[in-house]
Amino acid sequence: MSWIKEIKKEDNPILKLLYETAEKRTGEKTANVLKVHSLKPKTLEAHMSLYETIMFGESELSRKQREMIGVVVSSANQCPYCAYHHGEAMVHVTENRELMEEIAKDYKMANLNEQDLAICVYSEKLTKTSYKMIEDDISLLRSVGLSDEAIFDVNQITAYFNYVNRIVHGLGVELE
Predict the structure, then answer these.
(1) Residue 26 forms part of a structural domain
(2) Distances from the Cα of 128 to the Cαs of 58, 105, 124, 162, in angstroms?
(3) Domain containing 108 — which CATH number?
(4) In principle, which of 40, 54, 67, 138 could form an S-S bond with 90, CB 3.0–4.6 Å?
């Protein structure tokens, strides 16, 4: 739950449809981070659309890399809700809990290839000190083989997790 009022899905047909869609995709009950949108179902719809696009849409980034960004950003923001959810998703895709835990604790000490390390460095810098981003940060990503499209995806996923971390922190969303 959260610190604000939430509407039950039975009280709003649009909300009910959105929750059922989310539940079909995950096979689980609707996550609290989605329920917090219940006062404004259109924002929930937009949130879900963005999430589906950046996390499951076409991209040069692997699912592992996408979830890794979520873990790095959420760990940097000290957001246990998102770090837990996307850590578990990373374990699901990689079947490697140890790697996920290393990344969550300190990705610099994890056994990452050059490309994954560069993605983590960019994501952490954008999260902690976005005002210090420079063109060389993009050059680093290019130097490890990322295209501009993939770089855009890294940026969007990083920005998305910062957005969600702030929803969770700002509205007191509790882990299920």
Answers:
(1) yes
(2) 27, 16, 6, 10
(3) 1.20.1290.10
(4) 67
Give the pLDDT score at 26. Answer: 80
61 — alpha (psi -120 to 50), left (phi > 0) or beta? Answer: beta
Tens digits of per-residue pLDDT, 132-155?
A: 999 999 999 999 999 999 999 999
Candidate from 23-32, 60-69, 81-90 with smallest mean pLDDT:
23-32
| 159 and 114 housed in the same domain | yes
Q: How confident is the model at residue 160, as a pLDDT?
A: 98
Give the whole-angstrom CA distance, residue 146 versus residue 34.
32
The pLDDT confidence band at residue 30, using thresholds 50, 70 and 90, is confident
E strands present in the chain: none
Residue 109 lies in a domain: yes
Domain match, 48 and 74 both: no
Tell me which residue range forms the domain holding 132.
Answer: 63-163
Number of domains within the chain: 2
This prediction has a pTM of 0.93
At residue 29, the pLDDT reads: 87
Residues 107 and 75 reside in one and the same domain: yes
CB 110 within 8 A of CB 99: yes
22 in the same domain as 84: no
Where do we find the tokens 């079947």?
95
Total count of residues recorded for the chain = 176
Q: Does residue 145 share a domain with residue 119?
A: yes
